[in-house]
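Weekly structure sync - notes
Attendees: PM, LS, DV (DV joined late)
Agenda: review two folding runs queued last week.

Item 1: First target. Sequence and structure tokens pasted below for the record.
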Amino acid sequence: MKRFGKTCRRYAPLLICLLILDGFFSLLLWISDAEAQGRLTGLILLASIVFFAVIILILHIKETQKQALFQEFLTEPDEIHTEKLLRVVSESEGEQLQILQNVLMGNQEQIQQMSDALQDYEEYVEGWAHEAKTPLSLLTMLLDNRSEELSPPLQMKLDYVRSQLQEDVTQILYYARLGSSTKDYRFEMLDLEEALDEVLEDYKPLLEEKQFLIEKRNLTGEMVYTDWRGLQFMLGQIISNSIKYSTEAPELTVSMWHTDTADIVTIKDNGSGVKSYDLPYIFQKGFTGDATDSRKKATGMGLYLTKKMAEDLNLKLEAESQWGEGTKITIRFPKVQ
């Protein structure tokens, strides 16, 4: 109906011309025969309005058909759709249509090439990440089974290198996955404490080096509905962030509580925290805040990827922080009906 109204407004000058012409003929009738003019004026006006309505209806149908064919052409500018559209446009429009088709086909070819290149890149990155896990596994096995042959300072350094490499590999792997068009998430009810314990085990060398005090509140038997690998990745990045920006006597508290609409997990540390003017940007890609010694080494990717993962899993991620007092990250899991 809205499109029909636009058609009427577009051709309104035609109706005005018809009415002016009717007035002219009525004047001629009045000059020649005033009595006939009185009888025929209404008929002439009615005929003109009907004629205008029929013309507008025909034009509206053609415009609607042309619009539909044009939308199909924009979606798939191949020869078939181009030929269909050429049948309902004028010759001059047809020439412009041919130019547009060439441009669109060229763009589609470039898009396809870029899509293929991106897919090759994603496959390469994922393959590289999986290949990189093999030497990391060997390093872990060496540290676990031959630790007595290593001096404590050397073992601590190797543990640090292993943990850092593991985190970097995990980040790049999930960065590639989050940008992929295909996702392999498996949503199910998961034991939150079990997932957390596995992540804490991965970061155990760094947590012990910093002498973290870990406290778990109300986690026993708690279940959340999400993807296992996605959940562990988020927990790992948040804990890694707490380790990077820890201060003396570091503490990490993980707790859970419930509302009518959500299951809420909070991860709180007593680290350096974030300044108030930086807080709104901590989930942005590449953001590292003030260039302190610890933040100079940061990539600004950890919390960014955590936020992207939360969006993929339909979770809500929030952050609170006070400079010099620590940071609290909240993950809201929607209630399963």
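Item 2: Second target, run right after the first with the same settings.
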Amino acid sequence: MEDIATEITIRDYRPEDLPFVQSLSPLLAVQAKLDWHSAKVIQTFQDNYIKEMMTATNLLHTTFLAECNGEPLGFIHAREHSDEISAEVCATVPLLAVVEGMQGTGIGSLLILAVEEWARNNDFRLLHLEVFAANRRAQDFYRKVGFYEDTLHMIKPLR
């Protein structure tokens, strides 16, 4: 499946896709690698974050699924966001996940392209996202598809 991207369909999210989206929560949580938080705390955070992001909102938002022969392989969620520096309304990607074993096949790039088109169609000038500092693979991917570092959040555990 080296160039599976040619066989991928990107489609709009449907409510019945929620169990698939939620099933990728552990895959996202394991990327955090925050030694000052327990694995349980991180997983609870990720589960709640997905629930919050996928809940109906007044904010402009969208979710796309990547499929191959009807099998879901990944998803991306985007919504409007206020830029922390300029307060300009832009788009943000709070969630992007591709099933284990399928990263690096072009699925993530196709999902990013779908969100970029959605963002342009909604007159957003900027596309924002955040990624766990320990997730070097994701950072490399985001740089490859045109993202730049903007700010860096740091933390110091005191106990």
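Discussion on item 2: The chain has five helices and five strands.
Action: LS to circulate a short write-up before next sync.
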